[in-house]
Design a protein that fits this description.
The protein has one domain: 2-Layer Sandwich (Nucleotidyltransferase, domain 5). The protein is globular. By secondary structure, the chain is α+β, with helices and mostly antiparallel strands. 44% of the residues are buried. The strands form three sheets. The protein has a nine-stranded mixed beta sheet. Strands 10, 11, 12, 13, 16 and 17 form a six-stranded mixed beta sheet that branches. The protein is built from ten helices and 17 strands.
Length: 353
């Protein structure tokens, strides 16, 4: 039996989703890859700090003689690879390592055959590189894969893939049921609907009208939360003379969003509260994002429904609503695209390529 799943390879988080009965199973990993080793050999502290709960280790992915660390706490064991160009989405060992780790978590190892709906940024599918990107993606993804995760061997066969723009997933999460069939009022299908998808490295504006993509208001750019992360990296370096990776900066911003109070960063001599620096970085990024959206959509009132998705909307949603007060933030916006694409994968008439 072939299982139909969705992959959403974001630059901030790598997501996989599958409709399983009456629910959707979603797996998410930080899009962090490094070359290193988690085995510390004989190094320890001899119990001086007391018994402590063992922290979760990164996944160790091995294939074709290569070994990578993937996911949480990679930065504790290796320098993260920080490729943010779109070519990373078509091929490369980092993409393979993330794909294998995420699929392994979703399908629980074993020998499995899959069809994959692959979410890609609007700018990738809209530009001249769309066809070469898809050829490269199919060239390595379609076929048999043998790899190990933490020493456990897995065999996957990808039979076919179907590329889709990532924000299509948000539109489908809003509009279709678990079999990929339209579930809202028929009038909503004909009305203009807009999706604002703000991720780590991309800002996608996607619009649908009368059941078709509306090219006039659909566009994308590299205006994601990376801008805020870059600003924070520069601020920390200038103020504390301390280096910070983009993924470490992103983790600090997530901490800022998730809880009030100080956001502490270890620096020479102790630790400092960088919450004010994060707030400034978010303000800078918000200014650029709002300017891009306003140029493309104005105040967005030409759309009957305006949906916001992507992890960046958790950080900048309040600022965006000053321009777009009628926008609705989708539940769990970090995984909304993956969940919607998983719904699409269940359609009997979906053409796989």
């Amino acid at each position: 039996m072939t299982r139909n799943i969705a992959l959403d390879p974001g630059f901030g988080g790598f997501k996989a989703a599958e409709v399983q009965g009456e629910t959707i199973k979603v797996e998410t990993l930080p899009s962090v890859v490094g070359v290193g080793e988690t085995d510390l050999g004989g190094l320890d502290l001899a119990g001086v700090t007391g018994k402590r709960r063992r922290a979760r280790l990164p996944y160790r992915i091995e294939f074709q003689g290569l070994s990578y660390l993937v996911g949480e706490r990679v930065a504790d064991y290796a320098r993260p690879v920080e490729r943010l160009d779109f070519l990373r989405l078509s091929n490369g060992p980092e993409l393979r390592a993330l794909t294998y780790a995420t699929l392994w978590r979703l399908v629980d190892g074993g020998e499995v055959a899959l069809n994959v709906v692959m979410g890609l940024p609007v700018e990738v599918l809209q530009g001249t590189e769309a066809k070469p990107t898809m050829r490269s993606l199919r060239g390595w993804l379609v076929g048999e894969h043998v790899f190990t995760v933490n020493g456990h061997e897995a065999h996957l066969t990808v039979k076919a893939i179907r590329p889709m723009a990532q924000p299509v997933g948000a539109f489908l999460e809003w509009g279709v049921d678990l079999k990929g069939q339209w579930a809202r009022d028929k009038s909503d299908f004909m009305l203009p609907v807009a999706v604002l998808d703000l991720g780590f490295n991309t800002l996608d504006l996607f619009t649908v009208k009368g059941g078709e993509v509306n090219a006039r208001y659909t566009r994308g750019d590299t205006l994601g939360m990376r801008r805020a992360a870059t600003t924070l990296v520069e601020s920390v370096k200038r103020q504390y003379r301390r280096g910070l990776s983009l993924h470490e900066a992103d983790a600090l911003m997530r901490e800022y969003i998730e809880a009030p109070g100080p956001v502490l960063l270890a620096v020479a001599g102790g630790q400092e509260n960088v919450r004010p620096l994060i707030r400034t970085a978010l303000d800078v990024a918000a200014g650029e994002v709002v300017s891009f959206v306003e140029q493309a959509w104005g105040n967005g009132r030409q759309f009957s429904h305006l949906l916001m998705t992507g992890g960046g909307c958790l950080a900048l949603g309040g600022r965006l609503r000053r321009l777009l007060p009628h926008a609705d933030l989708l539940p769990d916006p970090v995984t909304a695209n993956a969940r919607g694409l998983a719904r699409l994968a269940q359609r009997d008439d979906l053409v796989w390529r």
